[in-house]
């Protein structure tokens, strides 16, 4: 079994108190867990993908512009990774098994070459971490399921705006997508 850890949107705009679309305390509480999971995956030899929202300022045509305040705008500090994960990336960004992937939609697969990258590396299992459990993490899990990947979600390394939304997404992933919730 070959795995890839996909770290989704763990950026200042989604996590920090001053973030433009922050999940706040729940997202901040997973900082060490998401770092530990990423370091362990790297030590195992897994492929590490940082899938990060990329939006253009004043893009009125993007569907999210009508749903959420502007966030993760190109060239802003809001797109920087949050906490110790930023240090991990700074230390390992040049490594062949570490990839930064700009994404435009909720899912890390939508409109990106993620599926191609994973298949080139013979990845059959994706391990998901990051935010928001019920939006970008869940949509990535759904696309992974539809593409035939096994799915693992590290419950202590994902967070959402509310505990109710977080739990719904974990239950949905487990019961409908067959995800292994660890």
TrEMBL record:
GO terms for molecular function: hydrolase activity. Keywords: Hydrolase. Pfam families: Isochorismatase (PF00857). The keyword Hydrolase applies. Residues 4-177 form the Isochorismatase-like domain. The keyword 4Fe-4S does not apply. Gene3D superfamilies: Isochorismatase-like. InterPro entries: Isochorismatase-like_dom, Isochorismatase-like_hydrls, Isochorismatase-like_sf. PANTHER family: ISOCHORISMATASE, PEROXYUREIDOACRYLATE/UREIDOACRYLATE AMIDOHYDROLASE-RELATED. This is Cysteine hydrolase. It comes from Streptococcus cuniculi.
């Amino acid at each position: 079994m070959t795995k890839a850890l996909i770290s989704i949107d763990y950026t200042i705009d989604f996590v920090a108190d001053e973030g433009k679309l922050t999940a706040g305390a729940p997202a901040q509480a997973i900082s060490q867990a998401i770092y530990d999971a990423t370091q362990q995956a790297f030590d195992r030899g897994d492929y590490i993908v940082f899938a990060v929202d990329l939006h253009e300022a004043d893009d009125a045509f993007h569907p999210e512009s009508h749903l959420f305040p502007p966030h993760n705008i190109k060239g802003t500090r809001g797109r920087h990774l949050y906490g110790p994960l930023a240090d991990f990336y700074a230390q390992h960004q040049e490594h062949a098994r570490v990839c930064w992937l700009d994404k435009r939609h909720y899912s890390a697969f939508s409109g990106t070459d993620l599926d191609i990258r994973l298949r080139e590396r013979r990845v059959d299992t994706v391990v998901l971490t990051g935010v928001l459990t019920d939006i970008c993490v869940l949509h990535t899990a759904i696309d992974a399921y539809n593409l035939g990947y096994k799915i693992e979600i590290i419950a202590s390394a994902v967070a959402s705006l509310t505990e109710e939304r977080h739990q719904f997404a974990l239950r949905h992933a487990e019961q409908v997508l067959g995800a292994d919730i660890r």
